[in-house]
Amino acid sequence: MNYRCHAHDANISTYTKSKTLAEKAAWEFMANLPAESAMELVCVNPGGVFGPPLGKSITGQTLTVIDQMLRGKMPMVPDVAMPMVDLRDVAELHALAMITPEAAGKRIIGASAEPGSFRDIAKILKDKGYKGPSTRRPPPICYCVSCRFLIARRRARSACWA
Predict the structure, then answer these.
(1) Which domain range does residue 75 map to?
(2) Tell me, what's the pLDDT at 137?
(3) Contacts of 109 (CB under 8 A, 6+ apart)
(4) Confidence of residue 142 (pLDDT cuts 50, 70, 90)
(5) Is residue 65 domain-resident?
């Protein structure tokens, strides 16, 4: 497999690094198996996963954000977009990967063709009758402050680990 995302790049998030390193380790494990123990591997990599929870517990980053939006706890939504996928589609991708011989040795990306934003999610929820979600974006000054904070934090980390 070709890894365009370099796990040691300082600009890659911890989450992305962990996913990259885990998949790389899985492919290396498969490559080093003796012939008599050979197995097939398919990696399913979804974008941002959204959908109904299995139970009443609201845990996980995605569900927490949606829960806060529904309760009106987010007066503004982050101006962030990402590839998104419905969790039921991710489940179907996993099931199909297990029964489709041509999937062996492949990486399957589960994501929308176009990125979706938190504002898009808020608008969908409002259109469905939910009253809590805000579609307001933060004013530009918020981006300046948060960028300065992130730069200062990165410099502080670099100084600690140098």
Answers:
(1) 50-85+111-161
(2) 76
(3) 45, 46, 47, 83
(4) low
(5) yes
